[in-house]
Amino acid sequence: MSLPLELVDAACEYLDSPALAAVARSSSLLCAVAQRILYRDVAIARPNLPLTVALAAKPRLARHVRAFKIVVDSTSNVLPAYYRALSTALSQMPELVSLSISIPPRLTSSDALPSGPGVCFPRLRSFQASFTLDQHLVGFLSNAPRVAVLSLDGTAHSLYSADVPATLLPHLEVFSGSSHVAEALVPGRPVSAIFLTSGDLTVDAVAALAQSAAPVWTLDATTTSLPLPILETLAEAMPELENIRLTTTYNLWDEFFNTPFIQNIKNALMAMDHLKSANVSGMLWKWLTKDGRVLTNEPHLPSPPPPDSTPSDVDSQWTYDNHNTYYYH
C-alpha cells in the first residue's frame, strides 16, 4: 500500500459499519485499521447480544473498545453463562472511557462486572449501571479511579450495602442515583451536580450532600415534605446553586392558590445569589445574571378555582410568564 497509514486511518473514519466490515475483509493491514474503528464504540441490545460472547472470545477485538453499552431486558432469554462472558469481555477492555450496563433487576453487580487481579480501568470516566452500590461494585470502582460521572439506577428499595472507603472515586463530579447512595458518596468528593432518582430529600440529606468537596451547582430531587423548609436549608447549605428542580409528593393543591406560599418560595429562591433556574413542583423561575440579577420568568397565579373543582379542571389555567418582560428586584 502506497498511502501512509495515517491517511488510511483518517479515510476510514468517514465510513459506516458495513463499509468498514468490507474494508476489514480486503487485507490484513486494512483489517487492523477497520477493526479498531468498528469496535471503538459498541452498543449491544437484543438484536446483537451474541457480540458479547465474540468479544469475550477475542481479546484483540475487546481491546479496541472505548465506549461500551449493553441493554438486556427482562424478556430476553439469557443464561447465566452469558453474564460470565460479559464479565470476561469487560475485563479485556482496559482502555474503556464510557461504560453503561442495564440488566434485569434480579441481577447484581457481581453477575456482570469483572473483579480480581489485573482488572483495571484507568481511563474510565463515565459509568452507568442498573444496580445499586454493593461491595462488589465498590471493588470495581476502586479499579477505576478516574470516574467523574456515576449513575446507579437501582430501585428505590435497593439500599446500598457496602463500606465506602474515603479513597473511592476521588474525581467524582456528577452523581445520579438514590438519596441513600448519594449521602454515602458525595461527602468529601468534588461533586458539583446531583440527580436523585429515588429516595427523599430531607433536611438531613441536604446537610450530608452539602459536604461535597466542591460547590454544588445543580440539584434535582424529590421530597415528601413541603418544599419551603428544604429550599431555605439549601439556601444556607448550598449557596452556589445555579439550577434546582425540586419535586414534592406533598399535596400542594390548596397551596397553589395561596399567594403568601408562592411568595415565600420566591423569597427562599431569591436568597440564592447564583441561582439561574428553579423548578419547584412545576412552578418555574428563571434569572439572567450577566448584568446583575434579573428575574425573567415566574409563575402567575390563576383565578381561584370554583369550590367544587378538581385539579384536572384547572390545569389549563396554570400559565407561566414566558415573555421578554423583565422583573427587577
TrEMBL record:
<dbReference type="InterPro" id="IPR032675">
    <property type="entry name" value="LRR_dom_sf"/>
</dbReference>
<feature type="region of interest" description="Disordered">
    <location>
        <begin position="296"/>
        <end position="317"/>
    </location>
</feature>
<protein>
    <recommendedName>
        <fullName>F-box domain-containing protein</fullName>
    </recommendedName>
</protein>
